[in-house]
Amino acid sequence: MTSIRLLWLLLCLLWIGMEIRLLRKTRIDKNIVSESEERTQLILWFTVATGVFASLLFKSLALTPLPVPYIYRQLLALPLFAAGLCLRYSAVGWLGRFFTTQVTIQHDHHLIVEGPYRWVRHPAYAGLLIALAAAGIAMGDLLALLVISIPAYFAVSFRIGIEENLLFQQFGSAYLDYCKTTPRLLPWR
User: Fold this and answer.
1) pLDDT in tens, the chain (189 residues)
2) Residues near 9 by Cβ (< 8 Å), separated by ≥ 6?
3) What is the pTM of this model?
4) Distance between CA 58 and CA 155 in Å, rounded?
């Protein structure tokens, strides 16, 4: 069990490090980012951080344990967490220089519909939500799973709404056509 906890620690440290790297790498001119958009980024990460800490509390209280043995939860959750992170950073890679942590359109911006964007419109957010749900499953408590997943889903959905409005303003009917053929977060929807 100790090796599983160590693996979780390493994966979480990798995740935190990657997010800090993305934040530092993609800082853009504050003059082109609205104050309300900056708040959505803060709301999203505050929601994620609060969800993680609340889920750890519920995990320790074990009020609603999941009826799955520890090792089976870990065998499901660890690869699911890693897959979520891979999806998130794959999406960032496909966007390349167009990826920022702020919602903005850059000079010569074009619509990316390749890679993970051919299956879902927001794979970076989908990957984040998958990773969070996996962490909740690993914790082994239903309340932990719910508090780490549901608030993050609503924060992501709110931010997606802002992004989609901006993408529609920039790309018009091309973005609408893309929306008709590509689901928001789940490829089978």
Assistant:
1) 589 999 999 999 999 999 988 888 766 555 444 455 678 888 999 999 999 999 999 999 999 999 999 999 999 999 999 999 999 999 999 998 888 888 877 778 889 999 999 999 999 999 999 999 999 999 999 999 999 999 999 999 999 999 999 899 999 999 999 999 999 998 765
2) none
3) 0.91
4) 21
